Known about the structure:
Layout: H1 4-14, H2 21-62, E1 66-69, H3 78-86, E2 91-106, E3 109-118, H4 120-125, H5 127-130, E4 133-136, E5 145-149, H6 150-155, E6 163-174, E7 177-191, H7 196-201, E8 202-206, H8 207-213, E9 222-227, H9 233-243, E10 249-252, H10 253-296, H11 298-306, H12 311-342, H13 344-355, H14 362-365, H15 376-403, H16 406-410
Parallel strand pairs: 3-8, 5-7
Antiparallel strand pairs: 1-9, 1-10, 2-3, 2-6, 2-9, 4-7, 5-8, 6-7
Helix pairs in contact: 1-12, 2-10, 2-12, 2-15, 10-12, 10-15, 12-15
Amino acid sequence: MISPFERMMAWRYLRSKKAEGFVSVIAGFSFTGILLGVATLIIVMSVMNGFRQELFSRILGLNGHMNVYSQQGPFYDYDYVKSKITLIDGVAEVAPIIEGQSLLSKGPNARGVMVRGLEWKEFVNRPSLKGSIIDGDLDNFKDNRVAIGTVIAQKMNLRPGDKVRLTSPQVKSTPFGSMPRQRSYEIAFVFDVEMYEYNSGFVFMPLLTAQTFFQLDGAVSSLEVFLKSADQIDDIRKTIELAVEGQAGVYDWRDTNQSFFNALQVERNVMFLILTLIIIVAAFNIISSMIMLVKDKTHDIAIMRTMGATRGSMLRIFMLTGASIGMTGTVFGASIGIAFAMNIEAIRQFLEGLTGTELFSEEIYFLSQLPAVIDWREVSTVVIMAFVLSILATIIPAMRAARLDPVEALRYE
């Protein structure tokens, strides 16, 4: 237990005086260092969590948890395989799709795109797609009509009703030799799924239209499997593999995005380690300031010892003095970090307007908004870590104060 006397002495040593002005400066730097370290660590971890969650939700909202594909080329007997997968417990939906690369052109403008064919009802059943329409009407998504992303629409000056030409890598024989297949399509609507990769490189078209364009009559590229719970993906994948054994292969979204998410996890761990060093450096500043304070207060310590103060009291006084700096910095840093993370998109927009520069390019970061998700367990870990480092930093100076011999300290007084 800390007595009122010990708290009073710790508080007096924390207050700035001319005699120990330099000590107070170092203590101020220690406080600022811990504040900035804790705040920065919480902000960066929240942004990394936001990136991870947003990418997970976007990818799984636009793609299935698993894909079932034919190992012998086009998937012709997909209806039979679909019926078997649909009966598996935990499977929410199975959707046939066609995917293929193509060249989208309008006049002199052209760009490579990924064409994805899916049924109208599948487009409607996916909230991330249905709610992404910014221009045009979903009811027009039929026959020879396609949907394009907002980036394509802006860069090629396209809007619903315009005609575009798609060129397939497949060729057809003509009297003049082999020629690439080309067809004109009308734009049904423009979508914005808030992912640059899709807005700039994907074109959706009805499944029957895609079958005609890619010459896959009665066939698809694969079956997208959506699960009721993503946590069951390992168990359900094994069940599907047994159900379609010999007829099709299975891969899930982790297989196609493994390298990307591994890189994200490594970056997250490295950032945590680097930013933790800021707090450790601030803790060393606490050690420096406390050692100087103990040296400066040698006379006071000796007098208190001769008046009956115990070694334990001296230990607690200086531990409380140093720990107060770290704990106060941690509390303020955590408060600032949480507030910053909760309003990070508004702050980003304010800074971009103030500086006139683009701080968060969707072309680089894939997302159109800066995400941040606060993980309260991580925040607790950061706060506890900062508290522990602050207390550990006071042990050596406090032990020096407790071991001080009052006779030696007052010998030349």
